[in-house]
Amino acid sequence: MIRIGLLGAGRIGQVHARAVASVPMAKLIAVADTFTKNAQLVQDQYGCDIRTIDQILLSDDIDGVIICTPTDTHADLIESFAQAGKAIFCEKPVDLDIFRVKACLTIVQEENATLMVGFNRRYDPDFQALRASIDAGQIGEVEMVTIISRDPAAPPDEYIKRSGGIFRDMMIHDFDVARWMLGEEVNSVQATASVLTDPKFGKYDDFDSANAVLTTASGKHCTITNSRRASFGYDQRIEVHGSEGCVSAENHHQSRITVATTHGYTRPPLLDFFMNRYIAAYAAEIEHFVDCISSGTQPRTGGHDGLMSLALAEAALESVRTGSAVDPKDMLPNTK
Amino acid sequence: MIRIGLLGAGRIGQVHARAVASVPMAKLIAVADTFTKNAQLVQDQYGCDIRTIDQILLSDDIDGVIICTPTDTHADLIESFAQAGKAIFCEKPVDLDIFRVKACLTIVQEENATLMVGFNRRYDPDFQALRASIDAGQIGEVEMVTIISRDPAAPPDEYIKRSGGIFRDMMIHDFDVARWMLGEEVNSVQATASVLTDPKFGKYDDFDSANAVLTTASGKHCTITNSRRASFGYDQRIEVHGSEGCVSAENHHQSRITVATTHGYTRPPLLDFFMNRYIAAYAAEIEHFVDCISSGTQPRTGGHDGLMSLALAEAALESVRTGSAVDPKDMLPNTK
Amino acid sequence: MIRIGLLGAGRIGQVHARAVASVPMAKLIAVADTFTKNAQLVQDQYGCDIRTIDQILLSDDIDGVIICTPTDTHADLIESFAQAGKAIFCEKPVDLDIFRVKACLTIVQEENATLMVGFNRRYDPDFQALRASIDAGQIGEVEMVTIISRDPAAPPDEYIKRSGGIFRDMMIHDFDVARWMLGEEVNSVQATASVLTDPKFGKYDDFDSANAVLTTASGKHCTITNSRRASFGYDQRIEVHGSEGCVSAENHHQSRITVATTHGYTRPPLLDFFMNRYIAAYAAEIEHFVDCISSGTQPRTGGHDGLMSLALAEAALESVRTGSAVDPKDMLPNTK
Amino acid sequence: MIRIGLLGAGRIGQVHARAVASVPMAKLIAVADTFTKNAQLVQDQYGCDIRTIDQILLSDDIDGVIICTPTDTHADLIESFAQAGKAIFCEKPVDLDIFRVKACLTIVQEENATLMVGFNRRYDPDFQALRASIDAGQIGEVEMVTIISRDPAAPPDEYIKRSGGIFRDMMIHDFDVARWMLGEEVNSVQATASVLTDPKFGKYDDFDSANAVLTTASGKHCTITNSRRASFGYDQRIEVHGSEGCVSAENHHQSRITVATTHGYTRPPLLDFFMNRYIAAYAAEIEHFVDCISSGTQPRTGGHDGLMSLALAEAALESVRTGSAVDPKDMLPNTK
Question: Which residues of C are less than 8 Å from B143 in CB distance?
């Protein structure tokens, strides 16, 4: 039985608590949250202890922790728990500052700790089926990837301010998917961004609409399109074109019905909340984390993936600023 | 060059005139219509002669005729032109009276005439692709056929009165498709019918909504569903389930766009007129007629098909009246 | 907290145990199974007691039971637990003998017991969305219903022998859906059936391919198509045509990807197991049962629904035997 | 009656000849081709004269010409026929050299001639329905356009050599569609390109895989993806995302059937030849040309559109060379 501690019991923390409960091999032992109400809620539903983060750090009956606290605490917590010998699952990003991320990963490496970064899309059953189709050779060699990713609506202003901007907060997921699908590191990023849906994004020095084109050494391309607004729901599409075919994954509608009337044939809008859309992915993600602890293997999405996606985000921002293509390796601390 | 005479230049006659013009090997020589305006229209567009039906009957420069006159003239015209040695394409039905059909076909046979009956759906490219998939063995042995066929709206009252009713006028097309797809004669028909869309159908002793289940000697089934009203357009679907798979043909929408909004994902309604929906089928049908004249071969849809479909319609009507399954062979004149 | 006892911990019993665990307001208190291993499995996973059925009958700490024992024990257990004042969820059918069902329901009524019959499809989210669209008036008045329902493969021989045949075992689900969608009782059933997929069905006096056409007093129709074999998975479709439109529910594919190659555009086959296909329906069904106990309301699918669906199955069988339309009311014990 | 002369009777010339024949208001008077066999073919099918280009230039009975000769003759012919007072339809491009195009358009303007450039996609019924949906306000303000355009297979080597490269030959169509959909001129182009499908493209200093991101002054984006190879057919997709929704146009499959087997649900590949895919567009295009001559109005796609699309192609090439964003206005002769 793998024994889990949950740090942070807000919205995403509760999703992970439920996921832990659904994994037969895992047990939620303790939860910590400065908001007692959140901690209480998790205790009521899953019967675990309430402890402080420091208590969990010292607990002998905890094998791994799930970090769902605010972003600016991630790196510190990762370092502490790595040094305490616990396995760590951390929601992305490790930090918004790539130098801080690099420093943190150095400690993780020194401690030989297990660190998994929460790139939930890699655990989505449809996207896994898509990747499996590529691995099975059904489309030949990967050539061009198209990712379209749109949020139903803008996040709250408080969130936008601290998010790090559309590239570090939103497109970072697509950068990770791009790396997964391309199967090769990116050496050039061109990006454009603008404010189209709401002037407030400009006020926070951010954008709401962005495109990036990634290129690898062998000439493979990936096009990413992001928007902070989609009236029809949470738009999440991947298409991979290869030498012998093309594989794509369809969006998730609210139900599978179609109503035909004099106005046409209408299917419902898309699921409009990321937790509903990725409910299966969140469960699979935590199951993978538990498996990694149990078997002593490294997670499929580790610190390096967090670092490289952040480097792509930095490169995209730099490209928007300069109008020129940028090599993401030039954004990495150690190459400067 | 195959030289064609057109008898009747109304709506469907004009469709066939255009089809003749599009077949390189054919030429429209003459048109006959008691409404001079109709004949004039065809002459203006295709540069053919205007003649009377009797003149066309005696014309040496006509190889075949296309009969688009009112239904109650079909059988007489077929007989005359068969005796005159012309190839004949006749819109369905040969006649609403199965005894008259039988008598007419006997003369056609005696004269060894070429008679093609206008079951346009057999010439639809999608339905041909569907049948080709079966012939290629993609679904194994045919087991169960599902046909759904709905008109956008009721025909005019005058039409309904003389149509022979929903089974002889509308479902007759589906009976022909059923025979084509089953590849085996039907020996049992169960049918139900009711008036749901407009009470006027009851006034004319007709129905607007009907189902039939056909069974063959080897136990294959076909289910047919008809309605005289579909708000979303001209609904024309065929699905064939076999031992190793299932093949179906999708409807034709007005365009291929999809509009996604907060209300959902909407595709346009279906084409709502049979001539638009089956435009390619009408062209292919006439091309086949011309090919048959040119090569001296028998058409894929001949008098026998017209007779058997009418027998199925009679059996369905009898089943509605009695509530019992009826063998269509018992409806054929020669078996009584 | 609603306290549940589980009678029978086989395949479907385990599905229901998991469903109980996922309902916050419910708790699985005890399980009974003559196969100790099955009971043990449930105990291990959900931490409940193992008791005998008789012990559960006498338990003060049980509010309701879920009956997943063999069909021939259903009616007796329902009667006992109704008399013991427990709420009852019973997998369909109550019994294969309509007289036995009637007698059992009389006792349920006398005891004023809560009886829910497991027609899982009524709880499927897609089918509920479909029904909600009708209730919202989106397609106007219901006119014609089309249900296509095909199993991936034949059940084991032992199962076939005791199943009561395709109409009582398989199409009974479709009869229930038909009643739900028509919103009006059926007064005429026409059915045909044959053996097409495997001669063994004939050996057991059963069929593997069947159609039924149901008609209501107001002339609404429902066409049902069943097959015991579908190479492409578990085929479960409903389409309802109304005066102002048509609503349909799509099948569940194994994933949402499409692979395009030189051979075409391919989506994966359908889910091929009823428990995967209806996993959400099973959870919602048990949640509804718990809600009914908690609020003292009658379930949406009760004993009457079980009885009427069985009457439709009997009528269909009689129609196959006689070739004539049969009124299902004539199959009900009290009307004879 | 509008009287047409056809210059060049090769593959695309024959398509246009057929289109002229299908327009009631137009008549093909003469054809010119240095390959007598091509001219003969058109004469045989449509009964027109065979003349030389010079004869057509001097013909009083010709109102307009359709130029389908090799690209390097286009500009000269446009100038001559403009000076001769004939209306001109010219296949794209006017010329591969933007200075030559500019000079030619100056003469067209001086002569006040009617010049239509063959951007066939603007006349495709599906793309017109898409644009009409935008015009009807269904998706609100246009924000982001996605165009995916892939050829089934590489053109012949001879063609590649003289084509002007993937941006001037292939993506130029997408640039025109982008301008049409954005409804605003582009002021920044970022592009990437590589050789992935066949090394021969590199040999000719060309690419087979390319992306471009276009941005307008108001911050609207368009992403274009091109490949010279798609195993599944001729891939032609447009999607426009707006403030209130998204509209897209689906590809054209070879037929509308779906075959479901144990391997999945398969639709046929796409049409794999541009003339089949755009058959309706070619007909509508010529109909528009005839309408313009008849009514004395300017065509929807004129010389300016040809020039601006070529400027976008030049900007894309420059961006590939430099890795930086390029303003297409800087590519225009008059702005240098």
Answer: 196-197, 209, 227
